[in-house]
Amino acid sequence: MALPRRARDALLLAALLAVPALVLRAGTRAPSELTWVDRLVLRGSAPVQGVITRSSSWVGDLWRRYVALIDVQQENSRLGDENARLRRELARAQLLTQRAGEMERLLGLRKTVPSETLVARVVGVETSPFYRVIRVKLDRGADEVRPGMPVVVSAGVVGSVRRVFGAYCDVLLAVDPESSIDVVAPRTGAQGTLRGIAGEYRYRARMLRTDEVREGEEIVTSGNDGTYPRDLAIGVVSKVVQPEAGLWKDAEITPSVDFARLREVVVVLAPPPPPDPEAGKRVTVPHRGLGTPR
Amino acid sequence: MSPTRAFLFCAVGWFGLILVSSAQAAWPIDWPWHIPGPDLALLVVLYLGLSDRGGLVGVAVVALLLGWLADLFAGSPKGLYMTVYILLGLAARGASVRLMVRGAFFTAAVALFFALAVGVLVVGLRTSLQPTLGWGALRQVPLASLMTALFAPPLFFLLRRLDKRIQQGSRAHGRAAGQDRLA
User: For residue B10, which residues of chain A lie inside 8 Å, CB to CB?
Assistant: First the structure.
């Protein structure tokens, strides 16, 4: 006897509802157990899942690496700006350190120079290729500065004041051909007159042909010109031109001062004491008793 | 319901489970937010229940199979989703007498309602079987249901197209069989 369709469906539905209930009851007691059908389905699904997961990851990576790069670009821009700012600050700190060192050396120089000095800041360099002039700003004591006063740094002689206007003055550099400085080679005592070589940042010292001077020898101011204090560094002899005949010979001198990097200079206000014309000639006789020296 | 239709819809549900599972696995772990995936198998059962094709038993069989697959993929006790999906299929079939689900918004709304019901049912059944788990999982039900509802309109659209293909195929097969008989 065949069951009516409705009854058959009802029975089937009841069975279908009973199956999960029974499975659920069993599954709750042993949740880790899998039948061979379960394993078959899961094993069949796993490779497909792997492929899709890899594809999804690839798409995700693509998104993060390329599409989402707009954020990276912004971050990169921000970091670039920050890096540039830090570089600027670092450069500024390095410059300040360098200036502090220069100031320290200038301070040391002011102590060694036996005259009153003024510190001046370089504010400009020559605009004409035919002159070696710098412009400096005097922080104070502008009315004390006169043309011809020597200008020095710790490394050596810079030049002399050419003209003064207000708180500023132009300094004729020692490497200008117009400049003239009496120099001496301390090792041999050979003296000469120093002038700049036109178009170059070097000097030429004219000395007696018989005076001994050699390459690598240090040259300093002699103090005989009444402008520069003695023993200020000038430079090192780089070449000696020894003529076959004549009274003079020339020695090319590389300056000890880096004229391209001048920042602060010292103006020597008081001229050095005039050289004693009797120096080396007068014989001092030690007196004895209460007698006066002769 | 023809075996072909049942098989194809089971295949779609199975593929949906794999797709969501893979997408969840591939979700970047460094992303600050994590959203639950949609329950595509639930939507397949819902579609079958709401469509006027196929008998009640057929819907229940597909729901049973998809529930079984859902249990396997979810790691839940076997029979949990089977039970819930069968109930869902029957409820949807019951609702289909009064509901004419058309339009994306209405489809999403109906899906949201059933998804919420399924979520509550799953959590309820789970807690009744294992009381120590508590009801805390109910907090995730709204967002998960919303995600499922959002995916309902496009999936229903695809399933309708699949249904049309199946119908066209069966009609062509029927015509060919009829011509053979006539010949």
Answer: none
In a domain, A123, yes or no: yes
CB contact under 8 A, A45 and B18: yes
Determine the distance in angstroms separating the CA of B117 from the nearest CA of chain A, rounded to an integer.
Answer: 18
Closest CA to A256 of A230, A232, A277, A292: A232
CB contact under 8 A, B21 and A49: yes
State whether A13 and B60 contact (CB < 8 Å): yes
pLDDT classification of B103: cutoffs 50, 70, 90: confident
Containing structural domain, residue A257: 117-268
The pair phi, psi for residue B181, each rounded to 5°, is -65, -40
The answer to whether A160 and A148 are in contact (CB under 8 A) is yes
Q: Tell whether the torsion through CA atoms of A273, A274, A277 and A280 is positive or negative.
A: positive
Q: Minimal Cα–Cα distance from B76 to chain A, Å?
A: 8
- Which among B1, B10, B17, B18 is the top mutation candidate for probing chain A, defined by the most A β-carbons within 10 Å of its own β-carbon? B18
Amino acid identity of residue A277, one-letter, is P
CATH of the domain at A165: 2.40.10.350
- Would you say domain B3-23+37-158 falls under CATH 1.10.30? no
**Beta carbons of A143 and A250 less than 8 angstroms apart:** no
User: DSSP label at B85?
Assistant: H
pLDDT band at B52 (very low <50, low <70, confident <90, very high): confident
pLDDT digits (tens, 9 = 90+) for B12-51: 998 888 888 777 766 655 555 667 788 899 999 999 998 8
Do A9 and B61 lie within an 8 Å CB cutoff? no
- Residue A161 in domain: yes
Render the burial of A36-49: b for 16+ CB within 10 Å, e for the rest: eeeeebeeebeeeb
Domain ranges of chain B: 3-23+37-158
For residue B63, give the nearest of A191, A150, A20 by alpha carbon.
A20
Q: Looking at this predicted complex, what is its ipTM?
A: 0.73
Q: How far apart are the first and last CA of chain A?
A: 167
Query: What's phi and psi for B42, nearest 5 deg?
Result: -60, -40
Helix, strand or coil, per DSSP, at residue B4: helix
Report residue B168's pLDDT band, with 50, 70 and 90 as the boundaries.
confident
Could you tell me which of A176, A190, A177 has the C-alpha nearest to residue A218?
A: A190
Say whether A21 and B79 touch across the interface (CB within 8 A).
yes
- Measured CA to CA, the distance from residue A38 to residue A24 in angstroms comes to 14
- The domain tally of chain A equals 1
Q: Does residue A103 lie within any of the structural domains? A: no
Q: Which distant-in-sequence residues (6+ apart) come within 8 Å of B140 by Cβ?
A: B36, B119
Minimal CA separation from A17 to chain B, in Å: 7
A248 domain-assigned: yes
